[in-house]
Amino acid sequence: MKFIKTAAILLIFLLSGCAANHARYSRLPPRFTYPAKQLPPRARVPGTQRPYRVHGRTYYPIPSAYGYTQTGIASWYGPRFHGRKTSNGETYNMYKQTAAHKTLPMNTYLLVTNLENGRHTIVRINDRGPFVRGRIIDLTKAGAMKLGMLHKGTAHVRITALGETAAIHSGRRDGRRFLPYKNFNRGNFFVQVGAFANRGNAKRLQDSLLSQGYKTISRLSRQGGRLYRVQVRAGRRLKTARALEKRLAGRFPGAFVIAH
């Protein structure tokens, strides 16, 4: 019986490894695939929620997308990856409304707005990426077409978390249902500007921001290991939080809004 339990644990570990993340590039420049080195977690969390490393940089998936919004560059990936496995084990289909993000939980639904032409679409996260500086989301060909960015390859966008899918059990078979976030325009918003494994580094950044008049906290997260997330208070309205994110993004690329 002990052997069976040990074998089961090994099988779970191997299966989580199959969902390894791939570094991807958009059509401009050419795309290449690199294996993402999985970091050993300290807590029992899904493989897609564990810290991972690509190109020498460590990424820390966030536990919840509630209140999440971010602006940056979107790209898309297509034929070379069509039919391959995504990070959560699904088969990538460039004609579906899915997307890749570096840190959002899998099955998060996002409203993606093209700030260059006003077009928008809704996508579901099922992959990791894009691992190109300045890019925040990788869309499918279908998503790129809806946003009017297919030929250009990239666009300046805003992404906003709408909700997530959760497993349901309905008698004979399991399914999934969409759980929307209630009134996502109001909440207790913060702008995250950094995440550190070392408490001292987080404290130095926090003190620096406090000295500049920002109400800043260092929040300890234990998901996938101890991590100190430095976050600046942004008020109760999403519009105000977005304005603060915009001001801080120049100094902290990758800053994003989150709610607690």
Automatic annotation (TrEMBL):
Pfam families (UniProt xref)? DPBB_1, SPOR
GO BP of this protein: cell wall organization
Question: Under what name is this protein listed?
Answer: Septum-associated rare lipoprotein A
Which species is this record about? Answer: hydrothermal vent metagenome
Asked if the keyword Lyase belongs to this entry, the reply reads: yes
Any one GO MF term held by the record is: lyase activity
Name the UniProt key words of this record, in alphabetical order: Cell wall biogenesis/degradation, Lipoprotein, Lyase, Signal
* Residue ranges annotated for the SPOR domain, each copy included: 183-260
InterPro entries for this protein: RlpA, RlpA-like_DPBB, RlpA-like_sf, RplA, SPOR-like_dom, SPOR-like_sf
Q: Which SUPFAM superfamilies match?
A: Barwin-like endoglucanases (SSF50685), Sporulation related repeat (SSF110997)
Regions that span the bilayer: none
